[in-house]
């Protein structure tokens, strides 16, 4: 599935300054993300970056949405803020879209699906922060939209290692191929 490079996209989700800073444990933390982006580029696979950000004044953040109401109150997640920019370790190259979303799933309130249709993408390879957030929500939405799915388990981070383990070992395999970046890269050779 992943070897169909013309119809495959790597989604690098929420690897943005304000989120990475909460998970960074040293240079090694982001190495799997860098390796995934490098392998995709080398194979000619479309790389798409996804970030969460809000307009000035946070009109998209409902006070009923616990997580986003908190972000609006903190006030540092606007589209122009440094916290919402893609982390320099995986900086987008020309031709690599940066999709802005307004909810947890990469599909919610974004133009991601329009881009995928325009590029005739049917296979998605997912990586991101957090496993229990954007990866889970995007995987569920993408499965419902009939995308073929791969999750790069070592290029997903979660604050709770047990939640990460349960998702990649028990939940995700029902809807996706789950593998390491190295295992995936070998399918591209």
UniProtKB/TrEMBL annotation:
Family annotation (SUPFAM superfamilies): Isochorismatase-like hydrolases (SSF52499)
Domain Isochorismatase-like: 8-183
GO molecular function: hydrolase activity
Assigned keywords, A-Z: Hydrolase
Keyword Hydrolase applies: yes
Pfam families hit by this protein: Isochorismatase (PF00857)
PANTHER family referenced in this protein's UniProt entry, alphabetically: PEROXYUREIDOACRYLATE/UREIDOACRYLATE AMIDOHYDROLASE-RELATED
Family: Belongs to the isochorismatase family.
Protein name: Cysteine hydrolase
Organism whose genome encodes this protein: Alicyclobacillus mali
